[in-house]
Amino acid sequence: MNYKHLLLFVGLTFGMASCDRLLEFEPGDVILAEDAINDAEDLQRLLVSTYDVVANLYGGRVQIVNELRGPNFGAPDNSLDFTAVYNRETTFFTGINAGIYTDFYYAIYRSNVVIENFQFVQDLNEVTKTRLEAEARFVRAICHWGAVKLFARPYGYSSDNSHNGVPLRLESSQDPLPRATVAAVYSAIVNDLQFAAENLPASNGVYATQLAAQGYLAQVHFLMGEYDLAASYATDVINSGQFQLDEDLDRFETDLVNTETVFGIVSQPNDFRSSWYRDNLRSDNTSSPQLAFSDDFAFFMSLSGGGDSRSDWYTAGTRALCNRFNNKEYFNIPLVHLTMLHLIRSEALAETETDLTTAIADINVIRTRAFGAGNNDLDAESTAEEIRDAARDEYRKETAAEGHWTDQLLRRGTMGEQIIIRDAPWDCPGMSLQFSNTETTVQGFDLNEEGGCL
User: Fold this and answer.
1) Could you count the other beta carbons within 10 Å of the beta carbon of residue 328?
2) Residues 6 or more apart whose Cβ sits within 8 Å of residue 419
3) How many other C-beta atoms lie within 10 A of the C-beta of residue 4?
4) Burial letters for 304-319: b for 16+ Cβ neighbours within 10 Å, e otherwise?
5) SS3 214
6) Which pLDDT value is given to residue 35?
7) How far is CA 69 from CA 282, 355, 421, 434, in A?
8) Could you tell me how far CA 96 lies from the centroid of its own chain?
């Protein structure tokens, strides 16, 4: 069976094979895996269902929530959930963070079921088994990482990262778990991604590949402040030759997978994959979309002066409306892309003051696309600090609305910079989302501090 495009249709096929019961088997239910998994196809379909949950998470929902915690978005128009996140006042009754938290752990749970139940499949060869495990561990890693970034203080908040992270679930047991330390969660994430990078196929349709895992490792190590490793993994992907920078500045393609997408969400008509972006940010289908860029972001963009093509992504006015997703009913969403990796590598090299020539080239290849050849290039004699600052500026511009900038500010806060996010310090109460109400029943589970950042 060809699974290449199964992700696109997984919602339509849940009722067609023996693992249906397992696909509905979520934490708290009682059903034996041996009753639901009979062959390799059942395991594959269960694996695909984990990608399906990831697609529902990263169809804009996680990205929007992360932007609302930071300075790029202005106050929401009228959504109570968005407003709670924006005001940094989420509680365990806030629906949006509870839904995200639950979905992260649905995908993790299903991934663990895949890993633990190879023994029930007689027709499973070693190559397929290794690939299935690598893909399941890839999904488990990116979901633990997504959860720990939203629901815990960032890596580096304490000197040994012994501060509370999120529950670390490496098996399908539903026994109540306390919050693991951030150190333990990040260690598990890196271990899973390293296994994935070593064992995923080089080509895997719309699913995870070796380079996708390396792209995530570059991001993870960058947030950990391990800049040598971040630069190395980014270089592996950049130098692979499999991806090319998109010249038209539109990574959110309809129908085609963008040339610089290393890993992302594939969408199609009526699957609602990109509906969070479409319904909340498009400025061409409503005069007052729910979300818009902040005055701070509009001012930041204005500092580029004339000629920056990325200025087309917003329209200044009473509200700085977002244009990145206009004229599209559905589109694919890149999660790891070449532009991001060039800018991660550039800043990482600047932080370590090594190979500044490559770091400058990374900046200039992005600026050439935005301004035109020879316009606004970074000088070849630029210092490490100048390169670092340029990389940060370009990163904020290029990832606008993609949900990454808040993470970068928190990283810089842990490094000792005086980071202020919308008139409040980066580590104020409320920056971390509150946990789902389900965790309030777990004895000894430490909820996040509430109170906002006033």
Assistant:
1) 17
2) 409, 410, 412, 413, 425, 426
3) 11
4) beeebebbebbbeeeb
5) helix
6) 57
7) 20, 34, 8, 13
8) 16
Task: Provide the 10 A C-beta neighbour count for residue 173.
Answer: 12
- Burial of 300 by CB count in 10 Å (0-12 exposed, 13-18 middle, 19+ buried)? middle
CA distance 223 to 364: 23
Task: State how far the Cα of 103 lies from the Cα of 83, in Å rounded to an integer.
Answer: 21
Q: Which of 334, 348, 335, 337 is nearest to 391 (CA)?
A: 348
Six token digits for residue 77: 């128009």
What is the predicted pLDDT for the residue at 438?
Answer: 82
61 touches 85 (CB < 8 A):
no
| Helix axes 126-151 and 61-68, enclosed angle (nearest 10) | 30
| DSSP H or E run through 421 | strand 420-421
**By three-state DSSP, how is residue 92 classified?**
coil
Burial class (CB in 10 A: 0-12, 13-18, 19+), 393: middle
C-alpha angle 285/402/332, rounded to 5°?
Answer: 65
Mean pLDDT throughout 81-103? Answer: 94
φ, ψ of residue 239 to 5 degrees: the values are: -80, 0
**Token output for 453:** 């950042």
The secondary structure of the chain in percent helix, strand, coil, rounded to multiples of 5, reads 50, 5, 45
Q: How crowded is residue 352: how many other Cβ atoms within 10 Å of its Cβ?
A: 15
pLDDT category, 22, cuts 50, 70, 90? very low
* Arithmetic mean of pLDDT, 208-214: 98
